[in-house]
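Title: Prediction job returns without error message
Component: structure pipeline
Severity: low
Priority: P3
Assignee: unassigned

Description:
Job completed but the reporter wants confirmation the result is attached to the right record. Sequence as submitted:
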Amino acid sequence: MAVREILLGRRLRIALVIGVVIAALGIGPLRAQRGADGMKKYAARYHVIYTDLPKEQVYEAVARITATAEEYHRRTRKFSGKISKKLPFYLYRRYEDYQKSLDGKMQGSAGVYDGVCLRAAMDVERFSREDIWHVIQHEGWHQFAHMVVSRKVRLPIWLDEGIAEYFGEAIWTGDGIVTGVIDTGKTFRKNDRTYVRKGRMQRVQRRIKANQFRPFVRIIRMTHSQWTEEMDIVNYDQVWSMVQFFVHAKDGKYRRKFTAYIDDVTRGRPSLPAFKRHFGRNLSDLQKEYNEWWVSMGENPTADLYDRIIVETLVSFLGRAKNNKLTFHSAEAFFQAARQGLCDPDIKKGPSQWLPPPLLKKALLEAEKHKNWQLQTAPGSRPMLVLTRDDETVFEGRYILKGRKRIPNVTVKIIPPKVSPEPTTRPTDK
């Protein structure tokens, strides 16, 4: 059982070269039972969670891991199997207790899949929440891949780790997660000084220009033992960027081929022959196209996804406000109420309605980057939150309250700006 522990910039990434399980069962009431070592047992939709965290953090964990599991299933339904049982997930408040559960074998790690259970330390004094959830989402993919996608055959290591990092980078919006985002870094101020943190995009571009990535033919046929022996952050950057390319490059040009390749390897076909079967034998030209795609990226290539995240998060809270019988005549009225804490969910109403107020606060701050917000309402219909960007791209956020618990199902439609048609005739010179 091989383990990796690496630092990506400031973000800790932990993963096992192993997979685990995800179970799609009907949602039931979240009940706690007292377990060993002061851990309570919570029956969530896809997991059984054992934790000593306070109720607010338990509810957040339930919402996040459930949204992540549903995204795994949605993205793999063409080739994955049936989900049969709930997963054991141990979430510790103290890093020391997490280490104790592993007999001290994972010093410095924030989370791990041990072959039976997913374990993580929600110790925010040691790790940031963002880093911890990257690890959980990464390890959760290994669970899903092992128990649902490919029970009898190990996925190629480049594919398993690349998809795990792809999901690790996803951002939670309250009722879902958004995948495919590319970290471009950020600028922030601290103690009257300005700091610039370069993102993963810049790191990938730098590695491509420095010829640090392996040829596709080598990385695709790499074995699990070779990966473990040559544990290197460069490999993780490469396989993540390859998955990003095969899923999103050129409006999804390679998405069907990539899905067909995954279907082949889950049936036991060797990685490299399966890859060449769908992508052709000339992998050097394919890698040149991949290099050009990454190096030619603009300043913020997934700006639409980041704005979708803002809208989706706000609509999650708007739907809960509707459950609390709050109505608003404009987007600004909703924003004002949210800033005053009037839209913070009531934890007494249970986990299906609760979301952490800091999630709303962050979305409100991000929303201030844009000026044109509207709350469109019509008699007999639910309100629609609309963002129109300066480039005239429109984001329409809607929700439907599902089930007896009235959980918001949030969708965001992105409408690109209209392009003026070219004239059919050109004026002649006089």
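Comment from assignee: result matches the submitted record. The domain at 3-152 is CATH 3.40.30.160 (Glutaredoxin).
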